[in-house]
Amino acid sequence: MKEDLLKEVYAGMGISREVYEYGERTLAALEDRFRRIDEVSEYNQLKVVRAMQECRVSEACLLGTTGYGYNDLGRDTLEAVYAKVFHTEDALVRPQITCGTHALALALMSNLRPGDQLLSPVGKPYDTLEEVIGIRPSRGSLAEYGVSYRQVDLLSDGSFDYENIRNNINEHTRLVTIQRSKGYQTRPTLSVESIGELISFIKGIRTDIICMVDNCYGEFVETIEPGDVGADMVVGSLIKNPGGGLAPIGGYIAGKRECVENAAFRLTSPGLGKEVGASLGVLKDFYQGLFLAPSVTASALKGAVFAANLYEPLGFSVVPDGTESRHDIIQAVTFGTPEGVVAFCQGIQAAAPVDSHVTPQPWDMPGYDSQVIMAAGAFVSGSSIELSADGPIKPPYAVYFQGGLTWQHAKFGILKSLQTLLDRGVLLHI
Questions:
Q1: In this structure, are 285 and 312 located in the same domain?
Q2: What is each CA distance from 278 to 95, 247, 268, 282, in whole angstroms?
Q3: pLDDT tens per residue, range 385-430
Q4: What radius of gyration, in Å, describes the C-alpha atoms of the chain?
Q5: How far apart are CA 228 and CA 86, in angstroms?
């Protein structure tokens, strides 16, 4: 009876019997994978609760401040919680940090000085960082302030090119940026363990080099975080994993006290630092979002695994593949045509609880060098822990799927994407 009811409701929402049954066959083989995801989620849930208890989070912490924000108990306690969760000395968690790119730019600009060199040992950074660094000229870039940049691409098998990394480190190298997730690339996402190996190698050359990890999309996917393996800074966005879908804005920088303090002085002003910055009315959402983050991340991760196992047997290249271990919530699917990218994203949008009636189109987004299509019918605008998909309209025409506040909604969105591909004739059969 239950199955008949599910078939009926899926049919009423535009999912054909063919697509539904294909999805159920795929799902039946993922029971053990999902159980392991739940085990990681349970561990991380307890880690967050323990941190909140040890930091003595109280009802008063949920209240906001205005004006200068002096003596903001909730803000200061939240930053202590983040430091404990990520096993770092200190943390900066603020609504004044507008997004992940802003958090990364803040971390870089506050810890680099004219004449310093920035090195990326994992290839090209995410598109929006190109203008921050000055790879693509932009006003206020690091390049304008005399910071040089070098990068070492990953080897063809996705491993680190240690020889070239060593050769590109010199007396001017001040900071190494390590992007955990793939961005708009089809390379593997880096595990925390492998990031630790890279950090150890770099510190073996010079201990004073700052190692920063772009942790976006990776929080709570594993039982350890980059702070556990020697990262000096761990940086991310609150409208991704750690915000749990509730945080309406914000970013974080967790790490060595000196690095975090430098970021705070850059965010506010010299002499003020962390002491100012009113939390307004967002603290309850920040705390509750962090509390929910491990289970929300698990739901998103299940969606990514399901998508990989749904699309890979149909002949599409997927990264990670259906059996690989997971280190972030992003699933890349390469269609090879713009029509495939567009149809997938429009299917995801049609499955959204908000703006499902809207049809996304490729457009010239700020910070990108090609048109990008983004699907995100989200309660928080731009939140990529919510069901979303996006991709640049350029070869190899890959789409990047992530998010899902609940596993059930992620499942529906993925089935809807497949249904749209079939309905548009991009995919002829399953």
A1: no
A2: 9, 16, 11, 10
A3: 999 999 999 999 999 999 999 999 999 999 999 999 999 999 988 8
A4: 21
A5: 7
